[in-house]
């Protein structure tokens, strides 16, 4: 297809030049030239569509391949969240929430920095209200059943930037002169005069020297604004890949029907008021046009005839002035959905787990578990244990060294973290109330600071 595109483009140009050089019939040449231009744009559109479809299929295949590896116990493809590790946290360090083969490592399917941070925040903070837990459970249950939506979303996310982005920097050096009414009038006037002179010259009413002069002038104008165009182009190159994927994520959310309260709320925050889908689509189109500037043939032709660079720079700055202030909120909402999909995906991957029951009314019961097992142990090898904990009471876990005391304590703690996040747990039954979680299992002495193990234990408590 690239050869056909090149052939149609060169043929269209040749048929424009031929009547001027060899005095061929103008009507016939211009008619066939227009036909070849239409063919060129059709082939270009078709080529782009097929390329996008191929890329989407490869991305989906990559999602499935990573999930197969994860089900086999290999989580190397995913971020282990080691940067979130805090040894002084109430429970995260003791319960292996972060780090290699940790809870985060097994759950995490996020790609973006913001989504990973949101997921980490959920795992290391206990919700304050019953309604928050119930809304989470409802939303994640819904997402766990939407297999196609989750896969498509993760496939698109795989193409997003993994680094932290600074959207505030985009507001700097915003060109406002080209967005004024006078500049628009000037651009349209120059373009109309150029096209009119070409049409009149084609019918021998004006000499070709005049449209040639106008064409040269319009090619030269963007050169005078080279610095501004270059800065905008560099910025567009930085944004193009990311925002194109954001537009696809928004399209997926827009097409999906949600029933859970917080999923509907998230969708409304993206598509209500200032329409983020329209904003991202517009930006994606603009940035694709910036990429097309790399085609020197098209750059000369479109600037010479239509002052395309000036229109592009004007539209780009107008977009920034209109939508940029909403950008961060939209990106964080998409990151929240990315984090929820990670949690919903964990539920889908563990159909043998059961959903816990939250005790909504005040009760002395804190935890009642039946056949609870550690989620890190393969399900066919895990040994379940019953456990009950009430307010005002405590349990003493005793046994020989290496008999599984710490594993049992982590079993209850990790399942509780899953439960408060609205996820299924590794237990036949699991009832719980909301309470503060604290653990102290990995204290160590420090001889350099004169801290004994006993002193470290006291400091921790």
Distance between the termini: 70 Å
Oligomerization state:
single chain
Helix amount = 55-70%
> By helix and strand content, what is the structural category?
mainly alpha
Largest sheet: 4 strands, mixed
Note the beta-strand portion.
Answer: under 5%
Shape: elongated
Radius of gyration equals 31 Å
- Number of H/I helices: 16
In round numbers, the mean pLDDT is 83
Low-confidence stretches: none
Feature tags:
mainly alpha; 4-stranded mixed sheet; 61% helix; single chain; 461 residues
Give a verbal description of the structure.
This protein is 61% helix and 4% strand. It has a four-stranded mixed β-sheet. It is mainly α. α5 crosses α14 (327-349) and α6 packs across α14 (327-349). The longest helix has 46 residues, at 26-71. It contains 16 helices and four strands.
SSE blueprint and pairings:
Blueprint: H1 2-22, H2 26-71, H3 103-107, H4 113-123, H5 130-145, H6 147-157, H7 181-202, H8 209-224, H9 226-255, H10 261-271, H11 276-292, H12 296-306, H13 308-323, H14 327-349, E1 357-358, E2 365-372, E3 385-390, H15 405-420, E4 429-432, H16 453-460
Parallel strand pairs: 1-4
Antiparallel strand pairs: 2-3, 2-4
Summarize the structure in short.
The chain is mostly helical and 461 residues long.
């Amino acid at each position: 297809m690239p050869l056909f595109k090149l052939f149609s483009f060169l043929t269209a140009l040749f048929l424009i030049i031929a009547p001027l050089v060899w005095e061929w019939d103008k009507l016939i040449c211009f008619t066939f030239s227009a036909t070849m231009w239409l063919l060129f744009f059709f082939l270009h559109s078709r080529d782009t569509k097929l390329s996008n479809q191929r890329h989407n299929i490869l991305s989906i295949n990559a999602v499935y391949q990573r999930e197969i590896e994860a089900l086999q116990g290999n989580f190397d493809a995913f971020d282990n969240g080691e940067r979130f590790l805090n040894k002084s946290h109430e429970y995260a360090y003791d319960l292996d929430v972060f780090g290699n083969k940790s809870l985060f490592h097994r759950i995490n399917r996020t790609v973006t920095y913001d989504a990973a941070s949101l997921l980490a925040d959920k795992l290391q903070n206990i919700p304050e209200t019953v309604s928050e837990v119930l809304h989470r459970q409802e939303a994640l249950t819904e997402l766990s059943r939407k297999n196609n939506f989750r896969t498509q979303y993760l496939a698109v996310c795989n193409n997003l930037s993994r680094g932290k982005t600074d959207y505030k920097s985009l507001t700097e050096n915003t060109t406002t002169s080209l967005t004024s009414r006078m500049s628009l009038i000037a651009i349209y006037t120059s373009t109309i005069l150029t096209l009119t002179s070409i049409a009149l010259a084609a019918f021998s009413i004006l000499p070709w020297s005049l449209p040639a002069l106008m064409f040269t002038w319009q090619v030269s104008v963007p050169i005078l604004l080279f610095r501004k165009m270059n800065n905008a182009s560099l910025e567009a190159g930085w944004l193009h890949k990311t925002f194109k994927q954001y537009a696809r994520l928004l399209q997926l959310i827009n097409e999906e029907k949600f029933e859970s309260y917080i999923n509907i709320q998230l969708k409304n925050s993206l598509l209500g008021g200032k329409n983020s889908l329209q904003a991202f689509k517009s930006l994606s189109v603009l940035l694709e046009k910036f990429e097309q500037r790399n085609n020197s043939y098209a750059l000369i032709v479109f600037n010479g005839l239509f002052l395309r660079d000036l229109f592009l720079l004007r539209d780009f700055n107008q977009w920034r002035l209109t939508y940029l202030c909403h950008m961060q909120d939209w990106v964080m909402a998409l990151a929240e959905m990315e984090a929820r999909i990670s949690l919903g995906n964990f539920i889908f991957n563990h159909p043998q787990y059961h959903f816990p029951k939250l005790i909504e009314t005040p009760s002395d019961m804190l935890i009642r578990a039946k056949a609870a097992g550690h989620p890190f142990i393969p399900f066919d090898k895990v040994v379940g244990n019953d456990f009950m904990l009430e307010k005002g009471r405590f349990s003493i876990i005793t046994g020989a060294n290496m008999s599984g005391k710490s594993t049992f304590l982590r079993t209850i703690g990790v399942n509780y973290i899953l439960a408060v996040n609205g996820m299924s747990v590794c237990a036949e039954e699991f009832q719980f109330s909301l309470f503060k979680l604290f653990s102290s299992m990995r204290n160590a002495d420090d001889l350099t600071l004169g801290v004994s193990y006993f002193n470290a234990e006291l400091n921790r408590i």
